[in-house]
Amino acid sequence: MSSLDKKEPPAGEGSTAALACPVRPRVSKSRLMRELLAGPFMAWIIIFTVVPLALMFSRGFTDKAGSFTLDNVMAITNPIYFKALVLALELSVVATVVCLLLAYPLALILRGMKHGSAGAIVFIFVLPMWMNSLLRTIAWQSLLEKEGVINGLLGVLGLPGIGIINTPAAVVLGMVYNYLPFMVLPLYNALAKIDDDIIDASHDLGANFWATLRHVLIPQSVAGIVSGITMVFVPSLTTFVVSDILGGGKVALIGNLIEQQFTVSYDWNTGAGLSIVLMVFVLASMAVMNAFDKSDMASRKVA
Amino acid sequence: MEVPLVDLVGICKEFDGNTILNDYNLSIKQNEFVTLLGPSGCGKTTLLRCIAGFEQPDAGKILFEGKDITSLPAHKRPLNTVFQKYSLFSHMTVAENIAFGLKISKKSKKYIADKVDYALKLVDLDGFGSRMPNSLSGGQQQRVAIARAIVNEPRALLLDEPLSALDLKLRQDMQYELIRLKNELGISFIFVTHDQEEALTMSDTVVVMNQGRIQQMGTPQDIYNEPSNAFVAGFVGDSNIIDAVMLQDKQVALCGARWECIDTGFGTNRPVDVVIRPEDVEYVEPERGIIKGVVSHIIFKGVHWEMEVEAGGFTWLVQSTNMTPVGTEVGIYVRPENIQVMHKPQTEDEEALINE
Q: Fewest Cβ atoms closer than 10 Å to its Cβ: which of A121, B3, B16, B341?
């Protein structure tokens, strides 16, 4: 199978080459096989990605009667939705920055450790991900509540309690807790690839730890930073679970408002329209991040 | 007396319970080309990393012009290193790589630009400044690494097997380049290699190391012509190392015959090792030799023929520009001054190594 695959011309020219070629039956057999193998994936993509997207766009650009309108998309100019979008952007930027500031030093420490023990620490960080994220977030709720575990402990110690539940701070905490592993893993991967000699060379040329970090480690781990940021920023921007549970309805992010369009107001058209706006922001942020990554890659390859 | 540039005093280093360096002492003079030569695992690279500041010795002191720098971190030492795998910064251009040290020490833009230009010219890479390191060949990358190190005007340049990744021709060219550079810069080079030819070609002083100790230290000529023990003789160049008995001063018994030599002071009837370089073995008509033998093997090596001659129960390695067919009976003769008598190794470790 694989040997046949290798002989095959690229997909586009495949059909004409197959027509001209005397060994057509073998080639078409391999094509058939390949299409069969790709079948389940294609079906998956069509059912769970293409169709929902099409539905979302058709709802988003039509009114209840089914005629074309931009009102649903333009709903974002409504101060309520606009504020929710801005707040979501703010909180997810803060959560991403906090994740980066926590994960980078951790990844650096892991880099310096022996392979086995680094693996064990990474395992501990990934372990909570085996539990349902809803459960973990609810756990944080009972930790942070006014009469919760943390305030109980602080009370025993005679310290004043903290009141961050149902504030943006609690939402950011939930985002950081849920998405930190997604920042640690790509950073660790990127940093572990940097040769020890490169760091020695930097020290050798007079750079102390901070100069080495700035001029060597960070530039050499850009790819990891970019994918870490994307993997924390995007789910933070779109979440409604974290803000729902830890915000207690008082912190309304764009995700929450979209959810309410579907589950409370039953206004699917506005919900779809707002989702399209949010998607534009997600795609834009990914485009910016990719541009960073590309410029880094390009500078490495250009002659 | 002139203060040595680098002075290593009683350096000890262990890794996971293995002794890498054992009470190591070495002085390196200003403007000296010193080569640390030895097999892999002999501690030469660890020693270089201690001097550079990447490793801390467990015991002992490193002095730089008489000042103790043992606990000084690498980035504060007035030394620069050229790494085996070049270790260039792949996200920077060639010029940025070279400018790195100068930028860190906050030199002016004009100064940096001039120095980078000068360094590029010095390593014969004029016009390569805006290229990325990955687009250069191995030899060019190594030149960039050298330029990046020397533009900081270090008092000594440390080189960790810098030529081992290059092919033979390039390696030979770079050997001459390095000698030229050293003379132009007037700084000390501390060069680590396992390649005896490299060591002999470039060095003012060769330090032959094994098992974390110095086996012998001297000029390339000393090391080659007067190896102090069988390890050095075996490691540097080809040689015949033969069990022998020192009968008395200037007379040694080996392969069942008495040989004239020029060594004295070994006592009488003492077991010794004798080293004879293959190019010093002369074969003559059977009757005129000290012992008789038969050519058992012959290989053409380009400059000379290499033969094995069975004589006196020993297989002699002989190099000659004359070809003698296999099976020819020859006499073996060695001039007294070419017989190098050495003490037998004293420790079991050394013994074990020779038998390897």
A: B16
